[in-house]
Amino acid sequence: MAHLVEIRGLRVEAKTDSGRRIEIIRGVDLDVADGEILALIGESGSGKTTIALSLLGYTRAGCRIAGGSVTVDGRDMAALPEAERAALRGTMVAYIPQSAAAAFNPSRTVMEQVIEVARIHDLMPPDAARARAVELFRALALPEPETIGARYPHQVSGGQLQRLSAAMALIGAPKLVIFDEPTTALDVTTQIEVLRAFKAVMKESRAAGVYVSHDLAVVAQIADRIAVLKGGEVQEVGATGQILARPTHPYTRALLDAVEPSAGAARPAEAAGPGPLLEVTEVVAGYGRIGPDGMPLVPAIRRVSLTVERGRNLGIIGESGCGKSTLARVIAGILPPVSGRIALDGTPLAPAAAQRPRDALRRLQIVFQLADTALNPAKAVGEILGRPLTFYHGQRGRAREARIDRLLDMVRLPRALKTRLPGELSGGQKQRVNLARALAAEPELVICDEITSALDSVVAAAIIELLGELQRELGLSYIFISHDLAMVQSICDRIAVMVAGEKIEELAPGDFGAPGTHPYSRLLHASMPKLDPGWLDGLGRDAAVEWPVRAGAAS
Amino acid sequence: MKSQIAYLVLNRMAAALVTLLVVSFTIFFATAMLPGDVAEVLLGQAATPEAVAGLRTAMHLDEPAILRFLRWIGGLATGDLGTSYANAIPVAKLIGGRLANTLKLAAVTAVVSVPVALGLGILAAVLRGTLFDRVVTALTIGVISVPEFMIATSAVLLFSVYLKWLPALSFANEVQSLGQLLRVFVMPVLTLSFVISAQMIRMTRAAVVEALDKPYAEMALLKGASRTRVVLRHALPNALGPIVNAVALSLSYLLGGVIIVETIFNYPGIAKLMVDAVSTRDLPLIQTCAMIFCLGYLLLITIADIVAIVSNPRLR
Amino acid sequence: MAATLRSRLRLGYALNPVGVVGFCIVAFWAVMALAAPLIAPHPVGEIVDFDYFGPMTREFWLGTDYLGRDMLSRILMGARYTVGISLAAVALACFTGVTLGMTAAVTGGWFDTVLSRFLDALNSIPSKLFGLVVVAGIGSSIPVLIATLAVIYTPGAYRFARALAVNVNTMDFVTVARVRGEGTGHIIGSEILPNIIGPVLADLGLRFVFVVLLLSGLSFLGLGVQPPDADWGAMVRENIGGLPFGAPAVVVPSLAIASLTISVNMLIDNLPRRIRDRSA
């Protein structure tokens, strides 16, 4: 018998804003057998989601299928009339979106939306559909399966919504389930539970799957075969074990290398100066009125202390909402702390940036996560880099131009970019400009707030490498804030772990997972996906995973 | 959650009251800045200084403006709308029947235009990008961009001058039969409906388009829902707040449109009364009419805000 | 700086034919308003025809009005009032509104709260009504008209600019400028303004349309430009008696207004767009 899914010579066109048509999928052939899970791996713009959506006979606005066939169970989704496609959606092919939080209609209850598929296609009576939904909720290990359906989407956490969207997909008993980066927006500890639930229900339902992701380690846990995509073309297809162990395509190898960054070169020990460069003592910060106990109404940082030695890097790790980015803003003076002290090189700093002397501001620079919003879109790169030069160092004219050129060299960007606007640069180039602007101040300490999270893995790895080189050249210190333990481990000397606004411990990069460390640190360590396909299954439900803070961190 | 809704609603109503106060203050002082003395103006050139002084005292014109403002606002609150300068009739009496006429006109216009406009707006959103959508969009922009009196005069030219179906003027107090009523109302209602429908269609279309662009609409489509179902079950419930807002804002354009329409068709409503009062500088009458208009506007937008709060699913 | 300029010119712009037509009509009226006295075939106030409400003839292209004056000349001179007053009012309104809006967005706090509340309240007085009240209180003259129209449209411009500026203000590049130690002046002028100037100019165009409509409406009610001067709205009013005969004197000023406002709308909706995908 033929395969369940046969994609042949698929080409998809997109219309650009000048009305030009460009091909974003250039002749793709793929097969998926019954019950098999195929992963589509690639970076943003590789066309992986476009291919996945074509399996539903759907393209996003401005795109259209220009050629080829997408056969699912003998019918060509690309050629069917709209009504027949609609009849197959939800029953033959189901879709699990990237952000369930956005894909659930805020004005209707979860249950209504989960059983809507049954109602649209008249599959079973509403009561039977509800009973089936509760069964699925139970299989997906959702809390309170009997009643969770009565809630509205905003009353359910992100990880739970993601599992509910799986229930929504499976209720129509489809033969093929499309997973569109379903765990990308989740924290690592939540991701494990969701992956585990997906894996269990897929095994039970025997449906085939197409799993779209940029994360090889995640895909290694769930997929039977992997297709590596780049620029709308398939680079390499193979069984999961083969792709991981013996990649043939250089691009696949680059992807694999980026997953597990090599431990950074050791920093010379003698670089450490006499006193600490930055000393943060008992800092409390948050929002709202300050209560009698000295805590604000909504505390974000609770009595955190840390030190950064000269020439050394401190990592701060934690999941979303743990206060790590707030801590960066407190140190930079963007959010003045309620109490506590911050001292730079032994000199106390005023709480708010506006009260700090210009030289103190110069010595401590912050680089933000999203270069898109961190660079003024109306200014050319040269102007962006030139402003701190004029502002801090009074440089003008030729000296300034020469310095801008040197800064671009430093971050390995061509000098010609000087006249470009940020909107004309790639994501990686923008982040380099963002970094160069901080360097223009000639700082001693640079706070990097999730600066690689928005980047594709290969690009992110290059940025991390650049940070190391700059450190060796300029003798900088970094505070490196991230949710990605592997990334932090590769560049930092000490790593502080934060949960719910508190720093629970500080470890050397090699000490993670060691016995005697805090259970949460062990949980974080255990939750980092490994390229080993047996990692998820081998990860017993040990004590660490059951650590109670999980529920709070998941929401 | 219920208490949060109550809090937001009360908050909105309090804000409306504060706004009303600022508005009345503005209206009072805009009219009180009159150069020259009201008493002199009223008594004419030949008045003796004594007579002027007497009238000044009687009208409290010697008191500080803020006191006069308080006296005026206190009167409004207790139903004492003052006396017309022009003909010494109590303002309340002048306004009574006229207000009813205007409300009749507004009600008929709303009943005619709201369903049509909502239907066209939603349809244009669903058929986005089609010829129908583009024609509707072009027409609404056209109607919004021309003055109301142009629509009114065009209607007269078409129906009265060329087709001779209708009289050019209307007098609501001479209506005896249903047929006459129709003939009296048709032209003003037609003109007003054009003016407010254009706004309503635009805003409704925008609200529905926005909801249709949300990921949950795409998700519904990928569950196999028909376009009709996506619109009715997923987009419309979420667009309800913005649509009610669009209706309220459009109806508030009635207030502007009615001034022109009543004047051009000689319709004995409150707006015509006010325009006439401006030419005779009858300040108490102007102030009261202005307050009625502002009250109507505030009432509309406050109701719209409250509907938006109550229909917000996140507050449920 | 020169290098920057060159790179921006190198960018492609997509022109839309509808936008071009809109631009041409707007430019036509601008030229007419400037050159009216040179072009007008007859003095505006002179009665040149024995007949009133005359039809369009070879001598009087747009007919004559209720006194037998040449409509073409009156329309040309009327353009000065309609375009001039509206332009002055809208410029004043937008300058005040945008400056206040950006300042409020950047400073925040009580300045923002009080100003926003006050201007919102002002905004809840229907615009025509506000015009009526002011004219009743102060009387009508060209400076009063400009000031009144400006006051009426300042809250809208303020609100628009503030909303845009608040969005830009939350961007990280503004935070970066703040922690660099930059003052409010630099943040408003150099970080925020360049990012909102496009929408602000488009908004100015739309607001210009509203001002033209309101001015015409007021003049039509006899509360705007006073005789012997006349803008287009006032011309419709003085010639309304010709409506039963379908005289050109009633129709032409309306058409003039419509041509101006619709073409401004066409222009704004179809401004030249920068093409972003130049990599071909």
Q: For the terminal residues of chain B, how far apart are their CA atoms?
A: 6 Å
CATH top level assignment of chain C: Mainly Alpha
CATH topology of chain C: the name is: MetI-like fold
Strand percent estimate of chain B: under 5%
Q: What overall geometry of chain B do the principal axes of the alpha carbons give? A: flat
Mean pLDDT of chain C: 84
CATH architecture term of chain C: Orthogonal Bundle
Q: How big is the Rg of chain B?
A: 24 Å
Q: Provide the spatial order of strands within the biggest beta sheet of chain C.
A: 1-2
- CATH architectural grouping of chain B: Orthogonal Bundle
CATH overall fold name of chain B: MetI-like fold
Tell me the number of helical segments of chain B per DSSP (H or I, 4 or more residues long): 12
Largest sheet properties of chain C: 2 strands, antiparallel
Average pLDDT across residues of chain B? 82
- Which structural class fits the helix and strand makeup of chain B? mainly alpha
Report what the structure shows.
The complex is a heterotrimer of chains A (555), B (316) and C (280). With 555 residues, chain A is of the alpha/beta class. Among the domains of chain A are: 36-48 and 87-257, Rossmann fold; 276-373 and 441-512, P-loop containing nucleotide triphosphate hydrolases (Rossmann fold). Chain A is built from 22 helices and 20 strands. In chain A, the strands form four sheets. A six-stranded mixed beta sheet of chain A has the order 6-7-8-3-9-10, sandwiched between helices. A six-stranded mixed beta sheet of chain A has the order 16-17-18-13-19-20, sandwiched between helices. In chain A, helix 11 (250-259) crosses helix 18, helix 15 packs across helix 16 (397-410) and helix 15 packs parallel to helix 17 (427-440). The longest helix of chain A is centred in the middle third of the chain and has 18 residues, at 188-205. The radius of gyration of chain A is 25 Å and the shape is globular. The relative contact order of chain A is 0.10. Chain B is an all-alpha fold and 316 residues long. Chain B has a single domain (2-34, 81-310), classed as MetI-like (MetI-like fold), CATH 1.10.3720. Chain B is built from twelve helices and no strands. Chain C has 280 residues and is mostly helical. Chain C has a single domain, classed as MetI-like fold (Orthogonal Bundle). Chain C is 71% helix and 1% strand. Chain C is built from ten helices and two strands. Chain C has helices spanning 2-10, 17-39, 71-107, 109-123, 127-138, 142-169, 172-180, 184-220, 232-238, 248-269, and strands spanning 13-14, 273-274. In chain C, helix 3 runs antiparallel to helix 4 (109-123), helix 3 (71-107) runs antiparallel to helix 8 (184-220) and helix 8 (184-220) packs antiparallel against helix 10. The longest helix of chain C has 37 residues, at 71-107. Chain C is elongated. Residues 1-10 of chain C have low confidence and may be disordered. Chains in contact: A-B, A-C, B-C. The interface between B and C is large, with 51 and 45 residues.
